[in-house]
Amino acid sequence: MAASAFLDGVTVLDLSSVGPASRCSRILADYGAVVVKVGPTPAKQGAQIQPPFFTYSAGRGTRRIQIDLKAPRGQAAFLRLAAGAQVMIESFRPGVAARLGIGFEDVRTVNPAIVYCSTSGYGQHGPQSTWAGHDLNYLAAGGFLAMSGKRSDGGPALPGATVADAAGGGMHAAIAILAALLHARQHGTGAYLDVSVAEGVLALMGLTIDEHLATGRIPAPGGDLLTGRYACYDLYRTRDGKWVSVAAIEPAFWANLCRALELAEWIPSQLDDAKQEAIRADFRRVLATRDRDQWVAALAGNDTCVAPVLEIAELTGEAQHAARGVFVDAEHPQHGRFRQLGPMLAGSDRTAASYRVPDGTTTDTDAVLGAAGMTETEIAALRRDGVVA
């Protein structure tokens, strides 16, 4: 990571193993923060999910420590780490962190400037705050599924990505943490952040929800411009059975597309509801005369808002991504060399072409506790008694 990384000097304690909190710490690590993943000792792991080695960028740039937080000495060791950190992220059920002795008030006592982020499905209070859930539940509760496409039985289609975890939770938490860090640096005081993933989904659905609140209209898939009401914003099958996306919203782009398809007669009818099925029929007929990549070559570069619908295996070979250094090599102690997405977000360091990633079966406990000021004798005693691993 470059010395000028935006979060150079920021230490993050992340007590999650998967989900929105881990998405968040992944973002912070890619901006240069030192992320310490804090997990339970092997004897206390219980039903905690252990993700496949390649997930969350295979732990790229993170450190691991295992602490028994139910043991008083484990709590004390954790608070010692927290005293030197800038950010803490936890994803326990509401109230659990406080019962463990590592809640916001406990941590703030040793570090008044801490940015303490709790991620949960529905928030720390309210009638649904104790509900268990996962990405699909939050997308359902936030209106996302109701506004998505339908499957053959009329029900909402399963989404192709964990949008709630990644954006409603992970990016939501990262944005909040970055704002709180700026405030802490300016004013010297920390913050408690109650990140509700379901509320993050509401934010993603803001255009639709605000329209309903302002006008009383009941939104539905296919009911407006961005959900398929018009032929100018749709998906079309090509001759080879593949698909292209069309999103020619602006009249100028729509006109370019119609001319390119030799369907200029439809230029004046872009938003004419009575003519949409006829327009779609012509678009389907014409676009079925060539293969997907032929259409993309002919249309995409000519201000038509056309792009291919790519399979995952296809997009990993795209020239655009290669030009921007999207993919990098990783070297794992057990699994060897493989490719992965590099740091993705604007401003993160893309200068490294390869990374060594950690073995998920090992920890950095001695180094992490040593950096917090613990002696080798203290650490050895904690290890001997099973408090750390």
What does this structure look like?
The protein is an alpha/beta fold and 389 residues long. It has two domains: 11-203 and 359-384, Rossmann fold (3-Layer(aba) Sandwich), CATH 3.40.50; 225-237 and 243-308, formyl-coa transferase, domain 3, CATH 3.30.1540.10. It is 36% helix and 15% strand. A six-stranded parallel β-sheet has the order 3-2-1-4-5-6, with helices on both faces. It has a three-stranded antiparallel β-sheet with strand order 7-8-9, covered by helices on one side. Strands 11-10-12 form a three-stranded mixed β-sheet, with no helix packed on it. The chain is elongated, with a radius of gyration of 25 Å. The model has no long low-confidence stretch (mean pLDDT 95).
Main sheet attributes: strand count, strand direction, barrel closure = 6 strands, parallel
Number of domains: 2
* Widest sheet: strand ordering: 3-2-1-4-5-6
Poorly predicted tracts of residues: none
CATH architecture of the largest domain: 3-Layer(aba) Sandwich
Q: Based on the structure, what is the oligomeric state of the protein chains?
A: single chain
What is the element string, with H for helices and E for strands?
EHEEHEHHEHHEHHEEHHHEHHEEEHH
Number of strands: 12
Q: What is the CATH topology of the largest domain?
A: Rossmann fold
